[in-house]
Amino acid sequence: MSHVPETPASGGHRDEEYSMPCAEALLAGTLALMTGYVQACCDSHRQAMGHKIAANLRLLAETDGFTGHFRTVVWSLQARWAQQAQSQDGNADSAAHVALSAAEQRRALWLAAPEAMQ
Q1: Segment 43-46 long-range contacts (CB within 8 Å, at least 24 positions apart)
Q2: Is the torsion defined by CA of 20, 24, 25, 28 positive or negative?
Q3: How many CB atoms lie within 10 A of CB 17?
Q4: Across-strand partners of 64?
Q5: pLDDT category, 91, cuts 50, 70, 90?
Q6: pLDDT value, residue 75
Q7: How far is Cα of residue 64 from the mean position of the Cα atoms in its chain?
Q8: Distance of alpha carbon 27 from alpha carbon 22, whole angstroms
Q9: Digit-coded pLDDT (tens) for 58-88
């Protein structure tokens, strides 16, 4: 395995376009999603990214071409991310219920009309 980076694909934005094998592209995409997960501004984005990260890690663990040790580590990561994604699902449901109840309380105040008008 060479540590010297290969020349990116020619044309276009050289800092954004790369030519790499599928497994490496999947790994790079998964790492980018993990970065996005940490930097996400809202839970709905984080929840979707968590599910995609778990799915990508499952695909990486099933991919031939990696060593058995690497695949074992990826399976372990996949289990943790899947658990995190399921935890996010449960938190999202309870958070949505709390937000809906708070929104209903605010709406009740918006609809209050005075008893008499002058």
Answers
A1: 43/88, 43/91, 43/92, 43/95, 44/92, 46/88
A2: negative
A3: 11
A4: 66
A5: low
A6: 95
A7: 24
A8: 9
A9: 999 998 888 999 999 999 999 999 998 888 7
Please state, in angstroms and rounded to a whole number, the distance separating the CA atoms of residues 67 and 90: 35
Distance CA 77, CA 21 (A): 22
Which structure tokens are listed for 114?
A: 């005075």
Helix, strand and coil percent figures for the chain, each rounded to 5: 70, 0, 30
Q: How far apart (Å, rounded) are the C-alpha atoms in residues 43 and 25?
A: 26
**What pLDDT does residue 55 have?**
94
Q: How far is the C-alpha of 17 from the C-alpha of 8, rounded, in Å?
A: 6
* Distance, CA of 60 to CA of 86 (rounded, Å): 20
For residue 41 the two structure tokens come to: 């501004």
Region 105-110 average pLDDT: 54
